[in-house]
Amino acid sequence: MVFSSIEFLFYFLPVVLLIYYLVPKVAKNLVLLVASLIFYAWGAPDFFLIFIVSMLCNFLITKKMHNAEEAKPRKRWLALSLVLNIGLLAYFKYMNFFVDNLNALLSLSHHATLHFARVALPIGISFFTFQSISYTVDVYRKVSEPLRRWYDYMLYISLFPQLIAGPIIRYNTIAEQLVDRTSTMEDRVAGFRRFVIGLSKKVLIANTLAILADEVFAMDYHTMSTGTAWMGIIAYTFQIYFDFSGYSDMAIGIGRMLGFRFSENFNVPYISQSISEFWRRWHMTLGGFMKEYLYIPLGGNRVSKGRTYFNLWIVFLISGLWHGASWTFVLWGVFHGTFLILDRLFMLDFLKKIGRFPAIILTFFIVVLGWVLFRAETVSGAIDFYQALFTFRSGATAAISLQCYLFLALAFLFAFIPVLKFGDKWMNLFYNDTHSKTVTIVLFIVTMVLFFLSVGSLAVTDFNPFIYFRF
Questions:
Q1: What digits encode the pLDDT tens for the residues 173-210?
Q2: Rounded CA gap, 9 and 182, in Å?
């Protein structure tokens, strides 16, 4: 079950909200927990028991760690929790990758290869693993107190709005909301508007551009024209942004309707003037997690320049691997890590000298090139696609509909208009809470129009899952 489905929009979500608003405050967390477990079981019934057991184990381990008075036992319980969480992630997400690469090495050395049953990937494991780690580490650091009730902890890990694809909610940012929160009518209206914005991004823009991107990346890279290759990667560049930021908007909106204030995950990243700024605007909760729980423990920028650059590179190599068990994702992480190092060496000064708009164009160009690695199935496929981009040849072309051109233009508009003052002010109208009566009425009308357009599109198009569901 995904947010952009008729089942979710007209059955699951309305029923959950109705029950949640009717029950007394003491029962609200239990209602949300049951709803969240049903939501997860609906999408991954085979992994439901593992999901439950891992949560209960982590809750008990963290409780033992908190109650331990001496440093050594606390460190041991922390280590056990990390081994449990990272171990499950490593097995389910990377075992196939490890065995495939080991078999490749064995084949090169003319040894017999290993035979084993392929491991299926539980949906959302990358996201709820990070939240489990955040809980244990924050309690270990005494940043936040542990939750007293097991079902409050299970709710934190399994809360359905952000369970499958984030945002990654660090425990210290939501600890108080898990035990005490309110949901006002203003929250519900603002949350619904935010949800519809995300739904529109996903259904009207991302799904339309996915048709073009999928067609281009399914072609023979050796024979496609350069123009087609650029159209394909540009389409994917906007598809992944509106797909993922759309999901984040929907998650934040649902959370707001339930009384939660989730962290923002995107801030118009394509208007960035450097790769460093891009990562302050793109998938901000992942960046915050990596900084807090990996970059700073490695020494951050409190060490020598060489060690700082190494820390950056390691963090983004791991970030790439977190996205997927493939060498293309590893190289994508290395690609961005390298440009972050180049920013610190000389590129920030260079980009500042050439001016704002040239810096935005150059940064966007670099980001687009990086998405080739993210989208290609193999490293050799990515190399072939890069050749198609830069050989400036004629060749096979994709059939591009007028609808694709229209929504590609809209994608450009909504991605870049905030670079202008009036555009930023206009876009913020949809995200701010306080408005005049006239603006409120206009926003309500626009919200309802977008909602019915999205529902109409869902009724006549094929199912299209979120890109980040596979991570």
A1: 999 999 989 888 889 999 999 999 999 999 999 999 99
A2: 23
CA dist., res. 220 & res. 226, Å (int)? 12
Per-residue pLDDT band for 303 (boundaries 50, 70, 90) equals: confident
Phi, psi of 396 (to 5 degrees): -65, 140
The whole-number average pLDDT for the span 18-25 is: 94
CA distances from 150 to 144, 163, 262, 339 (A): 16, 17, 21, 43
User: Tokens at residue 425, please?
Assistant: 């002010």
Phi, psi dihedrals of residue 46, rounded to the nearest 5°:
-70, -25
* Full-model pTM: 0.92
In the structure encoding, which two tokens stand for residue 189, read together? 């209206």
Hey, where are the domains in the chain? 6-180, 186-470
Q: Name the band, by pLDDT with cuts 50, 70 and 90, for residue 429.
A: confident
pLDDT of residue 471: 56
Query: What residue type is 251 in one-letter code?
Result: A
Euclidean distance between the first and the last CA atom of the chain, given in angstroms as a whole number: 16
CA atoms in the 13 A half-sphere facing the CB of 18: 6
Q: Among the options 66, 115, 283, 323, which is catalytic?
A: 323
Q: Is position 110 annotated as part of the catalytic site?
A: no
Q: Which residues contact 23 (CB under 8 A, 6 or more apart)?
A: 31
Q: What whole-number percentage of the chain has pLDDT above 90? A: 65
**79: three-class secondary structure by DSSP:** helix
Q: Which residues, at least 6 apart from 114, have a Cβ–Cβ distance to it below 8 Å?
A: 99, 102, 103, 106
Query: Is the N-terminal amide bond of 269 cis, ω within 30° of 0?
Result: no
Distance in angstroms (rounded) separating the CA atoms of residues 261 and 258:
9
Residue 373 to residues 207, 252, 328, 410, Cα–Cα distance (Å): 21, 29, 5, 25
224 φ/ψ angles, rounded to the nearest 5 degrees: -75, 150
**Non-local CB neighbours of 108 within 8 Å, separated by 6+ positions:** none
C-alpha span between 172 and 433 (Å, rounded): 25
Task: Report yes or no: 298 and 314 within 8 Å, Cβ to Cβ.
Answer: yes
Structure tokens at 44: 């991954």
C-alpha distances out from residue 112 to 101, 166, 193, 339, Å? 13, 41, 58, 40
Mean pLDDT across the stretch 106-111?
Answer: 81
CB-based contacts of 130, cutoff 8 Å, min separation 6? 168, 289
